[in-house]
Amino acid sequence: MKLIDARKDHYRKLANLEGYRSRSSYKLKELHKSYRIIGVGHYVLDLGCAPGGWTQVAVQLAGNKGKVMGVDTSFVEEIPGAYMLKSDICDDSVTKEVLSFFGKKVNVVICDLSPQVTGNWSVDHSTQISSNYAAAKIMDQVLKKNGNALFKVFDGEYSNEFYQYMKKKFFKIKLKKPKVSRKQSSELYCICLGYMS
Q1: Is residue 16 part of a domain?
Q2: Do 6 and 128 form a contact (C-beta atoms < 8 A)?
Q3: Does 9 carry a binding-site annotation?
Q4: Which residues form the Ribosomal RNA methyltransferase FtsJ domain (predicted)?
């Protein structure tokens, strides 16, 4: 994004004004408004959480009785009401850490994972989808029955394959591009409701 476009970006300004770490906070808010992904008192796992915009929203939605954990390879500044784990989702120890922190299976897994973009679309797309499969592997071990999930998907050659893979696991599933997403963005969000463990 060019600097001049960033300055004009309404959601970036709004995020600054309202204390969110990224404009992506509004994507989660918009999708939640339509699909009620996170409930009060829910235990929420945020995979690929940096810089923490989704984690902030998850803490607000889950409330005082909820519990939120964010996982990322990057350092993420502390967020009140959330536990941050600096780790790679491909590391087998993540699942143990998650279950140890929550003490039981979670209600929701959210995943806004994005690779370091190289500019080569087919490489970026396949890397992002591959990360989603790694996140789904964790989800299968930590998400309780009837739980919900939300995954960012770079639209492309393998996105339908990932959608079909998730469709077998949930009662209801939908692909949607939030209004908050930039027009030129190829990102979609896979909303998964009612995990059938």
Answers
A1: no
A2: no
A3: no
A4: 20-195
Confirm whether 37 is domain-assigned: yes
Is 155 known to sit in a ligand binding site? no
Kindly report the pTM of this predicted structure.
0.90
Q: In this predicted structure, what is the pLDDT of residue 4? A: 42
- Predicted confidence (pLDDT) per residue in 7-65, tens digit: 446 656 655 555 565 778 889 999 999 999 999 999 999 999 999 999 999 999 999 99
β-bridge partners, 91: none
How far is 57 from 37, CA to CA, in rounded Å? 12
For residues 23 and 29, is the Cβ–Cβ distance under 8 A?
A: no
Number of domains in the chain: 1
* 33 occurs within a structural domain: yes
- Cα separation, 18 vs 26, in Å, equals 11
User: Known binder of ligand: residue 72?
Assistant: yes
- Domain residues for the domain of 158 are 23-195
Hey, which residues are catalytic here? 152
